[in-house]
Structure formats: C-alpha cells, structure tokens
Amino acid sequence: MPTKAGTDVENLTLAAALAAAKGVGTFDWLVSEDVVRVDGRIAELYGLDPKRSGEDGLPVEDYLNCIHEDDRPRVEATLQSAVADVEDYQIEYRIVQPDGTDVWCRAQGQVMSNEDGGPAVRVVGVVIDIDDAKRTNLAVEIKEAQLEAVLEGAGLGSWTWSIETGQVRYNERWAGMLGYRLEELEQTFDQFERLLHPGDRERAKRALDAHLCGDAPTYSEEIRLRHKEGRWVWVKTTGAVTYRNDQGTPLVASGTHEDISLRREQEAALAQAKAQVELALREVNHRVQNLFALVPALVSLSANETDDAGELADKIRSRVGALARSHSLTLNAYNRDEGVDLESLVAAVLEPYAVSRAESGFAVQGPHVRLNEGEANAASLTLHELATNAAKHGALSVPEGRVSIDWEVLTGAADTPIMALRWLERAGPAVVGPPSRQGFGTRLIDSLIRSLRGEISRNWAEDGLTVDVRFPLIGAVGEVAAEGNGGL
Questions:
Q1: Which stretches within 24-102 are classed as H helix?
Q2: Which of 7, 202, 312, 466 has a CA positioned 20 to 30 A from the CA of residue 372?
Q3: ∠ CA 31-32-38 to the nearest 5 degrees?
Q4: Would residue 4 count as lying in a domain?
C-alpha cells in the first residue's frame, strides 16, 4: 500500500468526502504509469470525455493542454516539484473550456510513495471550481485599485477601521502626509490616537461617538496629527460606518484624510491681516481724534503768548502746519532700504509743540540709530501718543513745561542690541497718579511694544511722568554719536 511521509492513508477518505460537495471533483494520478483518472465533475470542467478520463484514464499532458497558456508553465513546475519532493501542493489556475471561456479552479494534491523516502508513485486530490469567488475577488481588487488611484490623484489618505478589534487599514498616502512609510506605523486605532493633538482629542471623540450612535449621518472633523518631524499637520477626517450587524452595532467604518494645512495657514494669515487692518483703521480714527483735540490746545498755547490777532493767527497757522508735517512724516517717512532715523522721528513728533517754545523746553539726547519699518511705526505711534497726552494734560500743556527724550543702545543676550528710550516730563501740571482707566492709545502703544518683544513702564511721579521703553533692534544700528542733539 502506498504511504506518504508525515501523512496517513486515511486522508484518502477526505477526497471521497469532498467529491460529494458541489463544485468539487476528485482525481487519482498513478505517477509511474502516467495515468490520471477523474470523476465526472472534473471531466466536465476540463471538457474531456467522462468515460475515457474516468475509466481508462488519460496522461497528464491531456489535462495540461486544457490549462490556460499563461498558467500552464506555473502548473507544470508545481507538479514536477511536488512529485520530486513528495510534497503536497495547492495551486490556482484557469481551465480553457471548449467554447473558449476560461474557468478559475484550485487543485489540491496529496503525494504518496511506497515507503518513507521512496519516490512518488501516486497523487490523489481534488479540483475545486472557484470561478465565481475568484471573479468576485478580482472585481473587488479592481474596484479597490480604481478607488486607490482616485484617492491618490486627489491627495487623500484612506482608512478602514474594524471597530471590535481596533485594527485599522491605512493606505500609503495616509502615512505619507505625516512623513511616514506605511510599514513604520501600526495598523491600529491606538496609533491614530497617539498621533492626535491633545487639544483635539475630546472634540474628535464627541464627533465620532455622535456618528457611531446614529446621532450624526457622517463623521467629519478638522484635527491636527503629529508629523514624523514633530510639527503638526492639519487634517480633515471624514468617514462613515460601512457595516452594522443585525442589532445595529457598528462593526466597520471607513473614511479619508485630507491635508488642509495650507488652507488653515491661509485662513490664519487672512485673520491676522484682517486684525491688522482693523487695528490700522482704529489707529487712523484715533489719530484724527487726537488731531482735533490738539488744535484747541495749540490755540490756547498761542493765545497765552500774544494779544495781537494777526500774530495769533500766524502762530496758529505755523503750529497746525507743523502738526500736519509731523503727521505726514511719521506715517510715510519709512525708507525700505535705509530705515528711519530715530532723531528725525523725534523731531517730527515734537515740531508742532516746538514752534515759539524756548529751546530749553525740549532736550533730545541719543546716538544715531536707524529703525526698520516695524520699529519705526511703533516708535512713531508711541511718541505721538505721549506727545498728544502731554499737550492735553501734561508738560506740553503749559508754556513752562519741559520734555526730555533720551535713548541709548544696550547689549542684550547673545549680543542683541537693545533700544532703551526714556520720555521724561517736568514742570507741567501736578501729577495726581495714573488714570483711572486705560484708553485706546495706552492699549495701542502697549500692544505695539509687545509686538517688538519689548516692554514699557510708566512712573506717575508728582513732578511729572516718566516712561521707559525697551525693545530689541532688528534693523541696522548706525554709528553711536558722542553727543546728542541736546535740544530742539
């Protein structure tokens, strides 16, 4: 009786049992005689005479001739190897039927020998018609390939989540948008949660739970996931449950990931630009109101200096003209190549109040420094606000009042140049303390100095206000002069 190493001849009973199954046929191949006998199912599948192939048997070559030419070399190699090594085999291939159509089948054979280590003498097994299943699988594979191509073309990552097991199938694009290769990531839901930004977890969980329990038709959220380089990538995740059991329990969900980082950056930039425009409009409005408030103050100062109407008119025209020139200079003087000279900026701000005022009323001291656009705007608006308040309530509201402005360039951390500027008022009305509330102008200059990574402090002493401003200089710093202007 033939035997096979590692198997039992009783396994032949399995072939007989399979013969009773639908779409399954049996065969018996006597290797040494080159005779293969098959049952009626295989004869029909191969398009052979059932009597000859069943009772008499046919050589292996007759069966191989029925196999699709693209599959035949692979089948022949598998049979030769199985017989030579006395090893069982399993292989899928196509049979070409008499009408020219091909049918997918799977052959499983058990190779036997007369004694352990002897040559193969017999092969028994089954041939199973798998055409329907194979073509269904092929159709699914084609559709999946088409879907993958569409997703790839749209730059979308995809995910399919087995909710009960926690397993998730991600595609290459899903991993790639985070800087990973697919094999670097675990195919699990835990992997997704580890990449999710802590600030987005609760919101994403609420949205997902709402969909899983049926309160929302789909799941869609904009979240941040950690890139391999450590930065955060904005992603729009969209999905839905694709399979529920008879009780309505969600078992499988699928969806996509879209990289929306560029859009979020553009939205943030747009919001910042909008905020800057709104701030600029408020500043323009504030400047106009200050100008209207300054004109009466200039008229009052001029009226205290003369009783002659013509002279008074000349003084008012001169001071209002100086105010207009100052306003124009501080808004438009910035030169992108050379920057703004700080001393010229100070002179422009103080010019409206310097007309007909004694030179001792002002003191300006500091080295030659050029400011970049942001620094010049901040310094201009800060000095303008301080001068406006001084003209309305402080030292510049009385003829004997004095204002000194001095600055120096200090050395900060990592040799960063630091601008240190002081505004000092004396001989003005007595100071009773800081105002009870902060106006827009105060909030504005505080914001401007903070935008330069600087700081501002105020000392409301009884003999006058002192304001100290410091900020790092990013623009070019000129040569330091030995002496300042000394007066205006």
A1: 40-46, 50-51, 60-64, 72-85
A2: 466
A3: 40
A4: no
Each residue's pLDDT tens digit, 172-193: 889 999 999 999 999 999 999 9
Q: Residue 487 and residue 333: Cα distance in Å, rounded? A: 22
Residues 6+ apart with CB under 8 A from 116: 3, 5
pLDDT of residue 449: 87
Residue 197 belongs to a domain with what CATH number?
3.30.450.20
- Tell which of 224, 241, 259 closes a domain: 259
**Which strand (E) or helix (H) includes residue 327?**
helix 309-332
Whether residues 463 and 319 fall in one domain: yes
User: pLDDT: is 451 or 441 the higher one?
Assistant: 451
Which of 122-131, 244-253, 350-359 has the lowest average pLDDT?
350-359
Helix axes 309-332, 342-354, angle to 10 degrees: 160
Is the pLDDT reported for residue 65 higher than 90?
yes
**What pLDDT band is residue 155 in, cutting at 50, 70 and 90?**
low
Q: Is the pLDDT of residue 468 over 70?
A: yes
Q: Which of the four pLDDT bands, split at 50, 70 and 90, describes residue 29?
A: very high
Distances (CA, A) of 10 to 2, 5, 14, 15, 471: 11, 13, 8, 10, 93
Count of Cβ atoms closer than 10 Å to residue 39 Cβ? 19
φ/ψ of 221, rounded to 5, equals -150, 155
Total domains in the chain come to 3
Q: Report, in angstroms and rounded to the nearest whole number, the Rg of the chain calculated over CA atoms.
A: 45
Q: For every residue of 210-224, which 3-state class applies, written as one string?
A: HHHCCCCCCEEEEEE
- Cβ atoms of 168 and 191 within 8 Å: the answer is yes
Domain, as residue range, for 189 = 154-259
Which has more confidence, 154 or 188? Answer: 188
Contact status, residue 197 vs residue 223, Cβ threshold 8 Å: yes
Among 339, 315, 160, 338, which residue's Cα sits nearest to residue 250? 160
The H or E element spanning position 29 is strand 24-30
- Cα gap 111→83, rounded to integer Å: 7
* Whether residues 67 and 45 fall in one domain: yes
Residue for token digits 């789909």? 218
Residues 339 and 463 in one domain: yes
Name the pLDDT band for 354 (thresholds 50, 70, 90): low
Q: Can you tell me the distance from the alpha carbon of 212 to that of 242, in angstroms, rounded to the nearest whole number?
A: 11
pLDDT on residue 314: 67
Integer CA distances (angstroms), 485 to 222, 366, 385, 417, in order? 58, 7, 22, 22
Mean pLDDT of 297-312: 66
How far apart are the C-alpha atoms of 305 and 466, rounded to whole Å? 28
